[in-house]
Task: structure prediction
Amino acid sequence: MDGLVVEYRDPLFGVMVFFTLIFVISFLTYSFGLYKEKKSRAEYRKLLQRFELGNLKEEDYVHLYATYNLPFDSIILLASTFLHKGEYNKAIGVYLALLEHVTERVKKEELLELLGKTYFKGGFLQRSKEIFLKILKFSPRNNNALEYLLLIYEKLKEFDKAQEVIESLNELEIDINQEELYIQTLKLLNDPLISFEKKSHLLLEHFKINPDIERIVVKYLLQFHKTLFWENLALFDLKKSLDFLWYLNFDDINFDAVSKNGLLKELYTAKGYINEASNSSIFELDMIIISKHANSHFKTDLNFRFICKKCKTVHPIYESRCPHCHKILTFKIEPELTRKKIETNQSLQ
Ligand SMILES: [Zn+2]
Result:
């Protein structure tokens, strides 16, 4: 016994035991680490495979965030692939699932904003409105939320609410003057208690303050008060409304007024209603007039497209608010030549 104790107390033996222990512990830790890493790699690979196949489920994103510590921004970027594919419901699912796991206020706010925007894109206006109102409750100076609320109230035709949002944006010293004039015009346009006659005159007054609403006014007058349009022809820059005038019914055209207006003479000569212009300063009209005189085999026609001056996207239909960048009254009309469909009496059967 004594010998053993001495042996045990031998400092060299103690050092050896110590190092052996360290070695065993390190080895075990290392092996366990390897095993864990291998296991999680296999899981991760499986997950990635599913992602490549486009099969990643909403809860997988939470898994990537909570288990694999993938950065929040990367998860958001991954989820945005749903948006690009137009799968709004799936993106919404990811945001809702992440909201349950995220604790930081900034991330929560970012997720709520994404959720609100996606509801908006998907056409769920009421839900989108609820989300942005929720954001404003704890973050009343959130510009994005206010700007989206303005879009939503405009779409829902709740113009008084839109006005309230404009006032909040004004307090944040955001230049919203143009939006305010525009919303006031929409409010007037949609007011069921004002007669067509009165509305037409009021719209003309709005137009004098804000010439950018020209197309809205011209469209309304050509629909509901043509005489007022023809009486005030000189006020308008008709190049902006070429499409309305091109498609106007023959019987609705005041040819006395047309005979005093160079551009309209060119337009209706090209259309074939009159023969009072031999050329035009607008290339497309000029080509049509020339081809008529040349008696060409190919008949040309006019078509229109619209380009947003802010985001440069091209649209086949005019909209007063660009659906792409959400700016107002930025569409520029561009006429384009097309080949006219020859109408024949022959049956195609
Ligand atoms: Zn745009």
User: Anything to note?
Assistant: The longest strand covers residues 300-308. The first helix runs from residue 2 to 9.
